Amino acid sequence: MSGDPALRSLLITAQSLAELQTQFQRAAPSYLAASCQVTGLHNGTLSIAAANGTIAAKLRQLSPDIASKLRQGGCEVSGIRVRVQVTYEVPRPKRTPRTLSQKARERLSSLSENLPDSPLKQALEKFSRD
Q1: 43, 115, 110, 116: which is closest to 81 by C-alpha?
Q2: Which domains does the chain have, with CATH numbers?
Q3: Taking residues 15-25, what's their average pLDDT?
Q4: From CA 16, how far away is CA 22, in angstroms rounded?
Q5: Which of 81, 12, 15 is nearest to 45 (CA)?
Q6: How far apart, in Å, are the Cα atoms of 123 and each of 37, 80, 94?
Q7: Torsions phi, psi of 47, nearest 5?
Q8: Of 45, 112, 116, 127, which alpha carbon lies 20 to 30 A from 89's?
Q9: DSSP letters of the chain?
């Protein structure tokens, strides 16, 4: 990529954004940094895209402190511009189905046999079968 002048420029921009993202993650609280993306640095103003309005509002509150920490880290940041950009869905962990042991099923079945006909009895019978 470094051989082509257009690609070299793109590579330098990508590397500088990655470095800014790393420095931002060090300067910002981790609960905010995980939901934000650095989008650029223009004329001393760091642009940040936040995942939602709540994170953006908190980031705006803390932006003077974050900018100060970034300056201490060597970034030439005079201010931070925050905008909301919801472009991705946060991956949710896949749920693994829970299963009952054979002993638990037997006990539920035994308990349901001693109950009168009711929704509880039907639910226990269903749990003991599944």
Answers
A1: 43
A2: 5-84 (3.30.300.180), 99-130 (no CATH)
A3: 91
A4: 10
A5: 81
A6: 48, 56, 25
A7: -100, 130
A8: 45
A9: --SSHHHHHHHHHHHHHHHHHHHHHHHS-HHHHTTEEEEEEETTEEEEEESSHHHHHHHHHHHHHHHHHHHHTT---SEEEEEE---SPPPPPPPPPP---HHHHHHHHHHHHTSPSSHHHHHHHHHHH-
Residue 126's pLDDT is what?
Answer: 87
Q: What is the pLDDT of residues 23-51, one digit of tens each?
A: 999 999 988 888 899 999 999 999 999 98
What amino acid is encoded at 76 in this protein?
Answer: E
Q: With left for phi above 0 and alpha for psi between -120 and 50, is residue 27 left, alpha or beta?
A: alpha
Measured CA distances, 14 to 4, 40, 75, 119 (Å): 15, 10, 16, 61
